[in-house]
Amino acid sequence: MAIAKTPKPPYYAIIFTSQHTKNEWKEYEETSAKMVELAQKIPGFLGVESVRNENGFGNTTVYWKDKESIKAWRNHKKHKKAKKHARSIWYEKYFLRIAKVENNYGKI
Amino acid sequence: MAIAKTPKPPYYAIIFTSQHTKNEWKEYEETSAKMVELAQKIPGFLGVESVRNENGFGNTTVYWKDKESIKAWRNHKKHKKAKKHARSIWYEKYFLRIAKVENNYGKI
After folding, report:
1. How far is B94 from chain A (nearest CA, A)?
2. In chain B, whose CA is at the least distance from the CA of A108?
3. Is A53 at the interface with chain B, CB within 8 A?
4. The pTM is what?
5. Interchain contact A58–B (C-beta under 8 A)
6. Is A37 touching B (CB cutoff 8 A)?
7. What is the pLDDT of residues B43-77, one digit of tens each?
8. Interchain CB distance below 8 Å, A98 and B96
């Protein structure tokens, strides 16, 4: 995983924080990889940054061009199915924030 | 580290992604803890979520009430000093995004 190379703002960030139960770890990792693969095909996908520590606490932030692309991903059939499973089996706790990136800078 | 309990939107998120060099790890951890302690004292601080994996890739997202509180923290003398050191010794790469949280939901 690396720092996402996103365009000049404005664009959107979906900040997803979660505490993993550590149940079905292998299945979770496979599904995560598959979801990234599918999300990348949605027009407006700009990048993803994902990190989880040894305690199962993680942050996945996905960058999108606009609200339309976020909506397309939210309503994606396979994504909806994965979310349902994730919320009942994998995520002990989770929180999702939809935020409009107004400015950015760094060294990448 | 846990999911931050933030108020009803709108509020701001500073999404900070970084690749750590793993240099001066102990000093880095001490400074990070100290910075969180100081940030919490700034009016408008709403919460922080921080996660780094075994490869040194990390995300620290800090939530703030408004741009004024972000500015107060950005200009904090001890924070400025720490940032300078961090950018030369600790962070191989980093990227900071300022985003306005418009909506949120979850199970916490």
Report:
1. 5
2. B93
3. yes
4. 0.97
5. yes
6. no
7. 999 999 999 999 999 999 999 999 999 999 999 99
8. no
Joined tokens for residue B95? 């990227």
Contacts across the A-B interface (CB distance below 8 Å): 129
The number of angstroms, rounded, from the C-alpha of B34 to the middle of its chain's C-alpha atoms is: 12
* pLDDT tens-place string over residues B16-26: 999 999 999 99
How many angstroms separate the CA atoms of A88 and A104, rounded?
Answer: 35
A44 contacts A68 by C-beta, under 8 angstroms: yes
DSSP class of residue A41?
A: T
Beta-strand runs (E) in B1-108: 11-20, 45-52, 57-64, 91-107
ipTM entry: 0.96
User: What gap in Å lies between CA A51 and CA A1, rounded to an integer?
Assistant: 8
Closest by CA position to A13, among listed A104, A105, A98: A98
Alpha-carbon gap, residue A103 to A92, rounded angstroms:
32
Instruction: Tell me the β-bridge partners of B50.
Output: B60
